[in-house]
Specification:
Elements: E1 5-7, H1 11-17, E2 22-23, E3 31-34, E4 39-46, E5 49-57, E6 72-73, H2 79-82, E7 90-95, E8 97-105, E9 112-118, E10 126-140, E11 145-158, E12 172-173, H3 181-186, H4 189-192, E13 205-210
Parallel strand pairs: 2-5, 5-11, 6-11
Antiparallel strand pairs: 1-3, 1-8, 4-5, 7-10, 8-9, 9-13, 10-11, 11-12
Amino acid sequence: MCNLYSITRNQDAIRRLFSIVSDTTGNLPPLPAVFPDNAAPVVRTVNGERELTMMRWGMPSPPQFGGPPVTNIRNTKSPHWRRWLGPSTRCLVPVSSFSEYAPEKNPTTGTKDIVWFALDDTRPLFAFAGIWTPWTGARGTKANPIEGDHLLYGFLTTEPNAVVGPIHPKAMPVIVHEDDWDRWLTAPPADALTLQRPWPDGGLKVVKRGPDKQDQSPAT
């Protein structure tokens, strides 16, 4: 389960790559560590144009189970998730790298390494296949709850490829090729969901491994 990723390219690079028409994020700094319940930039379609806006990471969990917000969605056949699979509530999540914990502890540190994956060593921007929803309630910590209206997002997962599998054999995030971004944002659900598949092995690599919970790259 991916519960930590980074967006270290700068705001202008995101705008240009994703052909953003409207940006409501304000002054967006690079984010070398995005954790669950953090606010992060998301690309959605509004009136046929792409908007970059901030949302909080973690979709509402199924009410019958309760539990914390859901960051990663695998079972898109579930009625709970189907309601958000239409074009109006699909989005792209900009990313420069994502991480998983190593399966075994590092004998030197006594803790599990954090393994970072990216398209290549330069950490170019790419996108996860996301869904989003408006939601009203309390988010944040119990000590400092944030009450009110929120925009929430999560992203889809699928079987891991040969790069992610040795580290996390259960799943990997769904990465959408740039040529398919419009398809994910606008196509009917049955067509869009054919993109829920592993990323090609040769297009992903391990770029960092260790205890650091941040992944840095030039903000260009």
